[in-house]
Amino acid sequence: MEQHTRQRPRLKNGVDMQLQAAFAEQNWTTVIRLADKRHKASKDPYYEVVKVCAETQVDGVVDKAAAAVLVDNWVRSGAVPKDLESIELLEWACDSDGDMSDYSTTFGVLHARWVKANPRNVAAATASLRACLQAWDLANAQQIATILDKSSHTHDRRYMFWGILLTHLLAGDVAQAESKRKIYGMLAQKQLEKAAEAAEAAASTAKIIDNKNKVSEADRSLHTEEEFLLYLRVVATHGTADNYTQRALHKTAGAAAQLLAAGRKQLFDEVLEQLETLKRWDSVFDLCRQALSMSTGDNNDQPSTVACDVRVWNSFIAAAQKSDNPEAAFDTVQSLLFITARSPKLPQMYTKNVGLALLQTTFGLPPALLPEPAAGQSSLQVEQLLTFIEANLDKVSLFDDIRLFTERLSFAQAQDLINRLTDTTPSTTLRKVLVFKLRYLLTTCPETRCPRSVLYNQTEADADAALLRGDGGLRLFELACKVCRNAAPASYGCTHCLQELVIGSLQLHRTLSDDADFIAAVPKMDKDPRIDLALVAGSSLLRLAGDVGADKGVDTSSLLQAALVLDAQQRQTPDDITLRLLLIRVFLRLGCGSHAHQLWQPLGVKRSILDALGPLFYDRLSTVAPGLFTGSSTPKKPLLMDPLKQYFSTVLRHPSAVRIWDAFAAGSYSSILDMAAYHGQLQRSCTRVMTVVEERRAARALGGRLDDGLLDDLASDLARDDAPLHNSTDYGALPNLESSFGAPLAEKVSLGPGLSDMRMQLSLLAERYLEVISFKPAKEYKPAKAAEAAARDKVYLLESLARIQFSLDDLLHASAQPAAHLTAGEWAYYTAVSVLVSFATFSLGNTTGDATATAPPIFSLLTESLTTAVDLLRKSALPPTPSSPTTSALLRTFTDIHSLGMLRETAVAVKHTGAFLGAFHDKENARDRTGKSGLGKEALAGAAAFKTLSARLLADIKTHVKASKDTLGAPGWLDRLSETVSQPGDGEGEDELTKAVVVAVGGSAAVEDWAGHLLDGWRETIRGLGQVQLD
């Protein structure tokens, strides 16, 4: 964990000014002398502590450990510190080396002993509790809280809940034994149940008190909302489902009763969510019915805020759908919804929420309750959608609100909806834009495609040609579009419909851009409609481009047109975050890391948002744009990864969550549990792992080496338990016009699958392996017993490599679909690393040195496996260079730079493995002249082969980079790229589509300017690759 050295404390009151001045001035020699003199004179152990702490600040190795030795002696002897100031000084002295991992067995024990000896000193005991909490020493903190509760003369009821809360946290601490965790959980539950029983008895005769200031300090029952939240969370964790349901729905003290009496909405929401998790749908229905029946106002004629909460309505409707009698349940839903919707005092701000509840109800009705539409009339679902659309047409969130409902329509209903919207007069701009978005949405729905026979359209010659191509001969069926009857491949949809969307949306875009009145009105709008039109056109073009990462079948023209349209719109509306993020992904896929960086910087993503949005830009960046990592860090221009590093360094500076003590002092128990869970997620964040891995890969590519200890800190945090890494990437920040039946388009244009536990664990293991084999002891290190030291080093190497090998193999074979987590280049790289680890392990375990010994066959098998993995990656990353490079070939080069980066990483791993084995053999031979400690001949042959292989791979990469640079430097690329974008293809409709693109972005001159912009980005990428060390 990233450690921050704590501030130097002040000496306690009563210390003479001479010693205080020397301590403040850090004159440690004088402090040692004066403290020793005061200790001998007064026999006060505090001065001994001052002396020891001062000794830790001088240069002597023995002196630096003086504080740790004193603390260890106190713990072992059972000594009780005289004052807390001594403990505070010792904590500061021991924290100077950044290692406080043993806090619970050292300072935590001392704090607990002191509090036990001085239970009535509440202020000091609270300070000890705070210190243990900040170090996340739950065991000693729980003891201190219990002592405060039992011994405090103040009778502060908070101490009881502090102790219960800490007991509950201990029950979830993996550092505790399983038997102890069960006891802790049972104890916390029993204590809170006792307090709850008293609260339930009191609630039956008195009103629930929500103001904690009115609660007697001696009252040990539950009163505040936070206390009930803690109680129900403990029961949910350690109790049974029946127990939780009974407690949560208690007549006088349950969630509904407290919502009615004291408006405790958070308690109600948590109970509702937990009941849904437990699938207690009858209880969910009853709870929602009680809450939605609430009214406010002088005459109880105004709907409550709960009745306007769409989340409660969704739960109510979901419970009705799962009811044993859905017709009766929906009658109740409709009656309550009718009362709420017809209320004359319904707040205007909640009108949309009630409309969403009406939509949810309409689409959730059982078939028996759905009326049959009259001839020529629309279905109830379509009518309700149209009503909602007309009422919320000016809302930015309209499309997201109706997207899931629209994709549930049948094809006939969807067509009816589009026709009704199109035919509505007057046809406003917002309605036209919505129609384009809905039409695009429908192209991604399987409901708009159907299989049809193609035998009538295939001759015997076609079948023979198909056999020669190897695609299976006769195709009996193909997918066709129900709208236009053209072929609609499952991979991207109907070509004709997508082309029509591009043409129509861009023509409207141009019309709006030429309308002076519209341009003048844009600043008054919540969102420029042209952004949505550009997104529809760009998304359609990206789908027409096909699989960007494929070796063949990519439509170069469509891909570049999509980037052009999105970039042109971003220049017009630079403040739109979603469009900017999508364009960042597109530029990264096109190999223009510098352009993506220019778009990322103005966003100013900071603090907690980095954990969610950072991967959208930083993930795999070291493989496609290593040149961005160059430079030196300054306050005005930090290094690329500095924001992420500083964020995690700040929030993880303590083992506990930041400001957790404030939550304790305020009695916000639910916040404490949430903060602890969030802090644990940050410790195990995929983004945190990505930060370490990307920076190390970039440093390695640029010929450097990182020794900042972040890899060890990360490994230490992750070793505490086996919980999976947490991925908090926020893909919701990217625009998404697709249906839920497929992956969002923003993921399709990414460099590969998003962050996942499997990929991050593999990357950590690979970095750990390179760290182990690259370690070199300091030159001053010369052990007195070289043979014993060598034996220990060998045991450590074998154990480390064995652990890495086992974990790598387990992860690589655990997933049935590695493509869901890894790119092809990453799969080949981690496979190669796994083989290298196995080879190194067997080599160290076969140190015979006997030239006549028979080598195990495993060496040749591992060498063949490595060759296979490397060859596959090499063919992907280094395709044959055509004699006359085309635009498609150039684009293929830059859209797959990631594979080139993984090939480089593979070559470096092979190189380091060969160097490690050779160095180990030379070292052992130099130490043991008999030659019996060196490696076997097969291992040495493998090491030599690794050096040759890595040199060849690096030379091939260097040649490829130079060839790409020469190709890019050839004249004529500006015209060729411009022609690729602005000249129509051979397909039907290409002419009109290309014309629409060119006109929408500003004409041929704008296309040429953008082509030059793209070339500049590629040249910058090549310049960055030229800085990579390939020797």
UniProtKB/TrEMBL annotation:
Gene Ontology CC annotation, any one: NatB complex
The protein's name: N-acetyltransferase B complex non catalytic subunit
Organism field: Sporothrix schenckii (strain ATCC 58251 / de Perez 2211183) (Rose-picker's disease fungus)
One protein family per Pfam: NatB_MDM20
Stated family: Belongs to the MDM20/NAA25 family.
